Amino acid sequence: MKKYNISVIPGDGIGKEVMPEALRVLRAVADIHGGLKFEFDSHPWGCEYYLEHNQMMPEDGLSRLENSDAIFLGAVGYPKLVPDHVSLWGLLVKIRRGFEQVINVRPAKQLVGIQSPLVNPRDFDFLVVRENSEGEYSEVGGRIHSGSDEIAIQNAVFTRKGVERAMEYAFKLAEQRQGYVASATKSNGIVHSMPFWDDVFRDVSEKYPDIKSDSFHVDALAAFLVTRPHTFDVIVASNLFGDILTDVGAAIMGSIGIGPAANINLNGKYPSMFEPVHGSAPDIYGQGIANPVGQIWTGKMMLDHLGETELGDKVLEAIEGVLEDGIKTADIGGTSSTTEVTDAIIEKLKSVC
Ligand code: NAI
Ligand code: MG
What we know:
Helices cover 41% and strands 21% of the residues.
């Protein structure tokens, strides 16, 4: 019997609604498989925990997660009561940085049964590999003076090591996919870090002669994701560019409620973390209408990461089958509840497995 220890952090808002649903799906996957077991270790960390303890997770939080096979996270944020930078940096970023989750991967794929806001999009299926540890999201800088003399300096940090490993990851993924990597640059406007980014991209691409590679300025690339998303396979981008491009990816899929994401630890020292793209959606929390697909698809990415790719594929097949049957939540034009969609996915799993 294979056993996986999963640390679970439902977090805030709809995270608490969609996480139990995704766990139900994973339990169903284990039941169907027969030789597989998930051990879920759940942690009540997040904004409510913060209001009680004045911290988003306990002092030894990271060490409690450290030995798990993966971390499964819902969403974090309760903006009415806790400022977003406190909740984000106190939990999410702490785990991403503390566990050296240096790569963020987000797929954007036209799912059967979901209407993209694009008119007549051709079938698209691309992955954005986002550098997740440095780049524009650095803490180097500061503010001095005040009033009209005030100055803010924010330094971007690009290391050869950091850039190279993100690009290597992208090329390796492309080898298993359509064999095409597009790099997001902006070397016409950002004259130091982006020409450096381009140099590293050229160096890495030479190691993969069978993979087609291209560079695009990020503004043009963002536009191409709208006008011809079907032409992309793997996109590699810096922290900021990747953040923006993946939101475009989620948007053209049809709803932010369906997109999954993975924060990958590459050196094997710490677990990787899997979380949907969406946040805690306080505007719909408590109504039972949150779309569980983002969390469930994220569970598929976790299965893939654990080496259970066949099962992962089945989960996505079940999701698409259910959407095709028209069983969907309101954000994608349906009338079903969170639980009804999950029930249908579990039923469908039984028939596709
Ligand atoms: P959000 O993703 O929570 O919501 C944006 C819009 O999409 C809302 O109208 C919401 O109802 C809708 N939506 C999101 N997920 C949905 C789902 N599964 N089903 C149906 N509709 C869904 O982003 P927002 O409103 O900017 O942020 C709310 C809170 O979440 C903030 O505190 C923010 O910091 C946090 N947040 C956390 C993230 C994380 O934990 N990774 C990511 C993004 C935001
Ligand atoms: Mg974002």
